[in-house]
Amino acid sequence: MPQLRLTSCVLLLLLSATVSAEPRVENVRIWTENDKTRVVLDLNQSVTHNIFTLRGPDRLVVDIKNGRLASSLVDMPAGTGAVRSIRSAIRADGNLRVVLDLSADVRSRSFTTGPNARYGDRLVIDLQRSGGLAPVKRASEAYRPGRDIVIAIDAGHGGHDPGSVGKRKTREKDVALAISRELARRVNAEPGMKAVLVRNKDIYIDHRTRTDIARRNKADLFVSIHADAVDDRRANGASVYALSLKGASDEAAHQLAKRENASVGGVSLNDKDDALAYVLLDLSQNASLSASLDVGSTVAREMGRVAKMHRKTVQQAGFLVLKSPDMPSILVETAFISNPSEEKKLRDKGHQGRLANAILAGVRNYFYTNPPPDTQIAANLRRSPARQVRHVITRGDTLSQIAERYNVSTAAIRAANKLSTDKIRVGQTLSIPVFAGG
């Protein structure tokens, strides 16, 4: 009997999870201003929908795939303006149909929009009096792309500063520039992303100017490329660094000392007293450091697929180039140039390309999980997957191979399947999100 009760509880939990996953219309709002009527469907998630108009009588029809009305939505609002009434029903195909009965000839358009501070996902329908009833402009046609995510790529050293030098006279500054150019080329080929090379030739740029260049280009992430070196030539492997807490506090003190020229996130510190300026710096640095550790972890994980890692987890150090208080920043030590075997790899174009691919994969995974809200990638994700592909795991499959096969990020697959790690098992079925426009 206890086993039966446990099974019943599990079934109820599964049923409730299934129900909660359905797209729901949680509220319908309508208002009129001058000759324009706006209808807003408040949703619990983004939806797949179809909108069209019908004659005799004139009406506008909204079909929402697998949609339902929320139990809290008892009555539709009364009609106003160009809308005489609103009604709904579940169709034989299981989709929710919402019908706007029209009282006048209108021009109509619709668009979808993602969550903001006050509302969640919404479907907005605008009706403009005058003229004949025109076909609805679909959301895909009204779509305006967001901005690109900007990645500042900093090739370490340069000019009179060669960096470390290997046994075969390989200079760190040359390796760093070659890998940075490869990474920039791949970032620029990625939809929704744009690369800024801090230096694209053999010149020296001081550390603070490097971050200033990134900030002037409104970079979302700063990636500094280097090659490690120690006296022990047996040392090997790559590492990824973020700023240490000690380095962050040192930078806060520096920013406060030159407050007349300092700013955080575009907010000047010049007119702020010490207490407020420190709070602003602390908030910004905590957010940047947290993001740096997150993106660093994804980059380290992806690099571990193509190279030996000296440290598998993100390390923290007080590198000056990482000290921007308002921009996530990581430093990648691609290998030990002091190790003859790794020096040879660093000189190889193919290995440089593999390193660049791995860094990009980590950056892409992070931003598909944490896209800035005004970007193209965020807009694509808000508009929901165009379709879900089912993939059954077979022996030898890895999450990264599956992601590459379907041209999506591992982060997107993990999010779609609520996976906390990259571990998968034979026979497991994964939902593969294939994004519209991505």
Strand order of the largest sheet: 11-10-12-17-13-16
Number of DSSP E strands: 19
Strand content: 25-35%
CATH superfamily of the largest domain: Zn-dependent exopeptidases
Q: Which CATH-level-2 architecture of the largest domain?
A: 3-Layer(aba) Sandwich
Number of H/I helices: 11
Could you name the ranges where pLDDT drops below 50 across 5 or more consecutive residues? 1-20, 132-143, 251-273, 276-284
Radius of gyration: 27 Å
Order of helices and strands: HEEEEEEEEEHEHEHEEHEEHEEHHHEHHE
The rounded distance between the terminal residues' Cα atoms is 51 Å
CATH C-level category of the largest domain: Alpha Beta
How many domains comprise the coordinates?
A: 3
Q: What's the mean pLDDT score?
A: 77
**CATH domain fold name of the largest domain:** Aminopeptidase
Structure, explained:
This protein has 438 residues and is an alpha/beta fold. The protein folds into 3 domains: 24-142, Immunoglobulin-like (Sandwich), CATH 2.60.40; 149-369, Zn-dependent exopeptidases (Aminopeptidase); 383-435, LysM domain (Membrane-bound Lytic Murein Transglycosylase D, Chain A, Roll), CATH 3.10.350.10. The protein contains 11 helices and 19 strands. The strands form 5 sheets. Strands 11-10-12-17-13-16 form a 6-stranded mixed beta sheet, with helices on both faces. A 5-stranded mixed beta sheet has the order 5-1-2-9-8. Strands 3-4-7-6 form a 4-stranded antiparallel beta sheet, with no helix packed on it. α3 crosses α8. It is elongated, with a radius of gyration of 27 Å. The two termini are 51 Å apart. Mean pLDDT is 77; it is low at 1-20, 132-143, 251-273 and 276-284.
